[in-house]
Amino acid sequence: MSEVVRKSEVVVRKRRLKASVIRKLEGSTFIAPWVIGFLVFMVFPLGYSFYMSFHQVRILATGIEIKPKGLDYYKYILFENANLLYNQLIPFLRQALLMIPVILVFSLLVAIMLNQKFAGRSLFRSIFFLPVIFTTGQVVREFMNQGEGDLGFIERYNITSLVSQNLNSAWSKPIVAIMGSFVLILWYSGVQILIFLAGRQTISNSVYEAARIDGASPWDVFWKITLPGMMPFILLNMIYTTVDLFTFPTNPILTQVNTSNYGQSSALAWIYFAIIFVFLGIVFFLYTRVQKAYDRTSYGV
User: Fold this and answer.
1) What is the distance between the alpha carbons of residues 264 and 75, in angstroms, rounded to a whole number?
2) What is the pLDDT of residues 222-247, one digit of tens each?
């Protein structure tokens, strides 16, 4: 009897093992296209770009010529040709640091407004998202070259001169640049509005009904319910906006790609990649500080 039981247990284990192997094979089959695409179109180009950053790469009629350069390109960009990084990129980073809260606040307010029930709500949602579809980098650059996108009252009330006279030039220039293309900057808010709109709909209406029954004002509801519920989406939009701004048409790095020297361009790209990560670290730091301050103020934590 015991022998029969042992044989049945062995059969059951084999069947379970076979079923487990089949499930793993099925999962691997489904994920294989993504893995292959990621390795071929992401990992290999990134690795080859990193390799090229230490070599002089020339495309000749006879093939590709590669000569080792070590850290020469990195030294040249960071120390010998510092004009690009320190005189052009840093002002752009200041401008981006100011643009992020403008885009986030505008997107949050518009998303809250579009979440209300009113006639033509779907039309207005489409209107706010349309610039994401139609405005490519070249379109925005052309608008900027024509001096479009500014607010009319800025020149009328001479606000630009007031900002330049009362602020240090290191910060007045980015602020003036933002005001000069304010409308175009808000065009970059379509995706953020969509994310905030989705985040607002995750908050249950019963919470707002309970707050209204308790006599909470709209201002209290916003600070005590809406904003805490939107915190994860604020962080998500901060990350997205930061990465998106680093491809903004006014970015000086994007105009310095040299196709005649792929090694130097690759080194510049990797330095820029590191700067983006540092900038994201600053964004995370500021977000955590603001959230902790908000928690202490609101909940006494």
Assistant:
1) 10
2) 888 888 888 888 888 888 888 887 77
Q: What amino acid occupies position 114?
A: L
Please state which CATH class domain 82-299 belongs to.
mainly alpha
CA dihedral 88, 94, 98, 103 (to 10 degrees): 50
CB contact burial 29-45 (16+ within 10 A = b; e otherwise) = eeeeeeeeeeeeeeeee
Q: Are 188 and 100 in contact (CB under 8 A)?
A: no
Strand, helix or coil at 260? coil
Identify the band that residue 16 occupies on the pLDDT scale cut at 50, 70 and 90.
low
Rounded CA separation 186/102 (Å)? 8
Which of 2-11, 45-54, 203-212, 278-287 shows the lowest per-residue confidence on average (mean pLDDT)?
A: 2-11
- The CA distance from 60 to 58, in Å, is 6
Both structure tokens of 16: 């379970």
Query: What amino acid occupies position 259?
Result: T
Q: Which has more pLDDT, 261 or 15?
A: 261
- Look up tokens 């949602």; give the residue: 125
> Which residues make beta-bridge pairs with 65?
58
Give dist(CA 131, CA 295) in Å, integer: 35
Q: Where are the beta strands (DSSP E) in the chain?
A: 55-60, 63-68
- Closest-CA residue to 90 (of 279, 225, 235): 279
Which residues, in sequence order, are CB contacts of 164 under 8 Å at separation 6+?
A: 172, 176
234's tokens? 């604020």
Amino acid type, 38: F
Instruction: Give the start-to-end residue ranges of the domains of the chain.
Output: 2-52, 82-299
Query: Whose structure tokens read 């310095």?
Result: 256
Helix axes 121-134, 90-114, angle to 10 degrees: 160
Contacts of 131 (CB under 8 A, 6+ apart): 187, 188, 190
- 8 A C-beta contact, residue 57 and residue 69: no
Q: 56 pairs with which residues across the strands?
A: 67
